[in-house]
Amino acid sequence: MLFLDSSDPVEIRDLFAWGVLAGVTTNPLILAREAPDVEMEARIRAVCEVSRGHVSVELVTETEREMIDEGLRYHAWAPERICVKVPLTGEPSMRVLAALVARGIPVNATCLMSFHQAYLAALAGSTYVSIFSGRVRDMGYDVRPVIADTRAALDREGLAARLLIGSIRQPIDVTDAIEAGAHIVTVPPALLRKMLYHPQTERTAREFNDAWNRRGSR
Questions:
Q1: Among candidates 207, 176, 182, 204, which has minimal Cα distance to 129?
Q2: Is 194 an annotated catalytic residue?
Q3: What's the predicted TM-score (pTM) here?
Q4: Containing domain of residue 40, as a range?
Q5: What phi, psi does 102 have (nearest 5°)?
Q6: In a structure prediction context, what are the per-residue pLDDT tens digits for the chain, which is 218 residues long?
Q7: 3-state secondary structure of 106
Q8: How far is Cα 56 from Cα 164, in angstroms, rounded to an integer?
Q9: What is the CATH number of the domain that holds 158?
Q10: What is the rounded CA–CA span in Å between residue 197 and residue 72?
Q11: Using an 8 Å Cβ cutoff, are 75 and 45 in contact?
């Protein structure tokens, strides 16, 4: 399953028309890059209008009380659609995650780099556990065993969390994540388009079309 990692309503609308996407992930970096002057609620509502499935919106406050209030506010924008992203940075974030889950709010535990973080978030009832493939590799580790071990634990213990892989930088990252057991991979628009293209497909289609178009000149 694929999600789109974007906050651009135009791109989201265009790429959802392919019929291959099941949700959207955003984060503060994406929003700052794509819409620095746009009011956040308006932007997220626009994203919801042109997509389907969960739209993940990440918390940016840091105290426990602020994070809970922020999560409740985001969820209220579109209760059937908004999934609150909680960066798993320490004990307060685990309490925030549990508090939101207790209120029936879908949670995406994010910025995860290890099996242990993903496992704890899954035990706490997170809807998604998001491991950042590219950033794990930046630290010099092979992310594939982390993905495989996490998926095995979720299946073995019957945990409901879906394993979502982000920080995807090239098509092979998508292949590796899916083969290692990811339920979902979230990809930026440029990479999704890159996944579609293959030069040999283009050459082959052109050869067939040229042959058809030449038939009347014989």
A1: 182
A2: no
A3: 0.94
A4: 2-217
A5: -60, -25
A6: 999 999 999 999 999 999 999 999 999 999 999 988 989 999 999 999 999 999 999 999 999 999 999 999 999 999 999 999 999 999 999 999 999 999 999 999 999 999 999 999 999 999 999 999 999 999 999 999 999 999 999 999 999 999 999 999 999 999 999 999 999 999 999 999 999 999 999 999 999 999 999 886 66
A7: coil
A8: 12
A9: 3.20.20.70
A10: 41
A11: no
Query: What proportions of the chain, in percent to the nearest 5, are helix, strand and coil?
Result: 55, 20, 30
DSSP annotation of 38 reads S
Which of 54, 75, 85, 162 is catalytic? The answer is: 85
Q: Could you tell me if 84 and 52 are in contact, meaning their C-beta atoms sit under 8 angstroms apart? A: no
Residue given tokens 């999934």 in the structure block: 83
Domain count, the chain: 1
Contact 17, 52 (CB under 8 A): no
User: What are the tokens at 43?
Assistant: 């932007």
Tokens of 139: 């630290």
d(CA 19, CA 52): 10
Residue 40 has φ and ψ, to the nearest 5°, of -60, -45
> What are the phi and psi torsion angles at 128 (to 5°)?
-130, 145
Distance CA 100, CA 102 (A): 5
Contact 167, 186 (CB under 8 A): no
- Which two three-digit tokens encode residue 50? 């042109």
For residue 179, count CB atoms less than 10 angstroms from its CB and return exposed for 0-12, middle for 13-18, buried for 19 or more.
exposed
